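User: Before I run my own analysis I want an independent prediction to cross-check against. Here's the chain; please return only the structure tokens and, at the end, one sentence I can use as a sanity check.
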Amino acid sequence: MKEIISALDNLPWVIKIIFCLPALNVIWAIYRIIKGVVESDPVKILIGILWIPLGATALWILDLVFVLAKKPLLFS
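Assistant: Structure tokens:
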């Protein structure tokens, strides 16, 4: 699972922006869930699960802002 995290962390900036779009934002939700499992952090797992429906509707904007600012994703 650490390979998945490092693969998503090392993606080109443009691909990260594309993954922030509402239909593809589920990728970042799964990223949060996997990162929570690897770190044994139940809060990150819960946020990742909640991010699936909420990310597609409103929270994708936060991911987009953080990626554009070249900062780590919120709650990751």
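Sanity check: Helices lie at 2-9, 13-19, 26-38, 42-68.
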